[in-house]
Amino acid sequence: MNQAAADSLPALLGEMRVIPVLTVSSVASGLAVCRALKAGGIRGVEITLRTPEALDVIKAVQDQVDDFIVGAGTVKTVNDLRELQSLNIAFAVSPGLTRRLSDRAFELDIPLLPGVATASEVLAGLEAGRTFFKLFPARAVGGLALLKSLAAPFAEVEFCPTGGIGPDDFRDYLALPNVVCVGGSWMVTSELIGSENWGEVERLSRACFD
Ligand code: 3PG
Question: Which of 24, 47, 98, 198 has the most CB atoms less than 10 A away?
Fold first, then answer.
């Protein structure tokens, strides 16, 4: 079991601070969005495996957008992990946590950010050797209040809340001591992508650092 990949993940994602969660169905859109994110100061992206084109988009962005961190999201199966292994992905994000997925990510040396939504799931994650979790869906399961409540019993745990976070509250999440970074799709919505509004993607990205 390789713990090193998991141990380095909070530092990598902490550097990014805001992680756009991107779902696209064409390589051209994926490249255009990522170039706009980068122009707006965003350091990297989570590309979800929710479309048949996702792996091609990941490869294209890795090859064609320099100095940009590329992770994969919506990783749900061991087969997803296997497909990502050959891509040398920077990180993988799962909406939940199973022992099998967690153990296989260690074996394949893929830095995995598994999702949790309750104290019991944090305990299961700790038993699996993990201390860094996506809180998902963050807003729906209690948001800021839940993160504050989890801080006392789980002082060793760090979170990346994702789900229902937007431009008006992401800073409140980042201000919590147990939050390393936040994820969200507010700067890469399907409407912005559908209308190819790359200028607005860039503007919303830049606003993350105002
Ligand atoms: C997701 O899984 O779609 C992410 O958590 C993003 O959530 P959001 O679209 O609510 O920002």
Answer: 47
The answer to whether residue 134 sits within a structural domain is yes
**Pick from 144, 88, 93, 142: nearest CA to 114:** 93
Q: And the tokens for 128? A: 């699996």
The answer to whether the pTM exceeds 0.90 is yes
Q: How many residues are recorded in the chain?
A: 210
The residue range of the domain holding 189 is: 4-204
- Residue 210, domain member (yes or no): no
Annotated catalytic residue 134 = yes
Q: Are 160 and 19 in contact (CB under 8 A)?
A: yes
Q: Which of 134, 158, 200, 202 is catalytic?
A: 134
Residue nearest to atom 2 of ligand 1 (CA): 163
Q: How far, in Å, from the CA of 20 to the mean position of ligand 1?
A: 9
Mind listing the pLDDT tens digit for each residue in 23-39? 999 999 999 999 999 99
User: Number of folded domains in the chain?
Assistant: 1
Domain of 118, CATH number, reads 3.20.20.70
